[in-house]
């Protein structure tokens, strides 16, 4: 597999002089498979615009574009690039869009295509020339053909959100964003008037169980792309419950689960290149006992597994 | 399906607050059978399509997160808050709510008295709370026929199930099973809904819980803890259920104080006055 990052930011695009090195586009990852012409895209953040342009220059000359987009979830920073993904305007393009939808009754097509209405954008979703199908995804294991298998798992985020684990020719590529560690949300202080022993115990058990299952999901990945929007200090100060992971915790998950390479992903829009370089000096030093290579994801970087 | 307006105002208060605690959220939802069913439906259909069904609210809140559960509760409660009180005239809603809570609390108290593992007791509460779920659509969708069925059962002091079949064409066990299956409430809860009037028909692995819910239902009916339209039970049926559960009627008497106190606590939490409950 070959993985290329087209957008690595969380929340909102943040172009500017301080984000030139790591990039300012929101989530988009390209995934290709050796010996096959399959192309899978994970998330349609603002980075998908550049990927679309690249595909127009390099894929289209070889024939009509056929691709699939797997959305981690439908928060705005993960779908905002979709209207600017040029291949959707070509009649020859065949595009499948997969992703989770929340408990509200709207379909994936309405949620993603809803941003292409006249009040927001000059072209309506119904007017797109490409053949596009939308399929809502749940947790499960899927055979994608050509020897590619996919396992999906729900992540802890304020919206239904999926992590993806692709396996191909003995290699594993796994994504887990946007995610926050599961926590016992119930009161655990016996002196608090709302304390309930059974609730506290069940909450503790459920959080431990879900964190253990999540770790099994990422275990043994050759490349794991993991939410690391905050530092532990930032997280503990005011960001708990926002659905993201402190980078220290992300690294600990990878270390506990025999991950070979880890891309810290979904950088906070406030994080400058200099700050990321400084953090890399602390967290991305080679030579640990565990052979784990850690880096901050960077737009344009390509990794072969 | 509408939420019960008995609980709606508290749901709105708890869920509209940005500072809602998980404990309050769990509590307010656990006091409304439709909301409880809806949250379990959400988690079981989203997370476990065909295996590992979840019947714990606390677990659902950890997995789905506070916001998702709050939004779901709000949307369900808002539906219930608009004029649904009139549609519940056939089966008085507040009495139905007290009955549902009473059966849930009693089932859990019986489970505790029988030393069921503490981690499994919530399932007894949820099953008891939801056992009459099937009556809600019968009552709201076919209110005229349902009113006649309730009258017939009372006049003849005979099974409400028979009267429902005769006058509505479907009984609350069957209707409840359909909802339970559609909502993915899991086999234990579905069996309790479908067979609390005939626990011997429940599969072996769930018979104990179903019979406990059946006994809790009989206990609530005999002691007039709320009302869900069932006439007083036949003593032969009570004996059969006691036998399955392995208890004597006298064993249940110490539960009365616990059950009354739990219902009182729920009413205080929901800010319901005694006058409102009558």
Summarize the structure.
The complex is a heterodimer of chains A (305) and B (278). Chain A is built from six helices and 14 strands.
How would you explain this protein's 3D organization?
The complex is a heterodimer of chains A (305) and B (278). With 305 residues, chain A is of the alpha/beta class. Chain A has a single domain (2-304), classed as Metallo-beta-lactamase, Chain A, CATH 3.60.15. Helix content of chain A is 22%, strand content 25%. Chain A contains six helices and 14 strands. Chain A is globular. In chain A, 45% of the residues are buried. By secondary structure, chain B is mostly helical. Chain B has helices at 5-16, 22-30, 33-46, 57-64, 66-81, 84-87, 93-113, 121-130, 135-141, 143-156, 160-167, 172-182, 187-195, 204-222, 235-245, 255-269, 274-277. Mean pLDDT of chain B is 83; it is low at 81-86. In chain B, 69% of the residues lie in helices and 0% in strands. At the A-B interface, helix 3 of A face helix 2, helix 4 and helix 5 of B.
Could you give the topology of this structure?
The complex is a heterodimer of chains A (305) and B (278).
Chain A: E1 2-7, E2 28-32, E3 39-42, H1 48-58, E4 66-70, E5 94-99, H2 108-113, E6 131-136, E7 140-145, E8 148-154, E9 162-168, E10 171-176, H3 197-218, E11 223-227, H4 232-239, H5 247-256, E12 261-265, H6 273-283, E13 293-296, E14 302-304
Parallel strand pairs in A: 3-4, 4-5, 5-6, 10-11, 11-12, 12-13
Antiparallel strand pairs in A: 1-2, 1-14, 2-3, 7-8, 8-9, 9-10
Chain B: H1 5-16, H2 22-30, H3 33-46, H4 57-64, H5 66-81, H6 84-87, H7 93-113, H8 121-130, H9 135-141, H10 143-156, H11 160-167, H12 172-182, H13 187-195, H14 204-222, H15 235-245, H16 255-269, H17 274-277
Helix pairs in contact in B: 1-2, 1-5, 3-4, 3-5, 4-5, 7-8, 7-14, 7-16, 8-13, 9-10, 10-11, 12-13, 13-14, 14-15
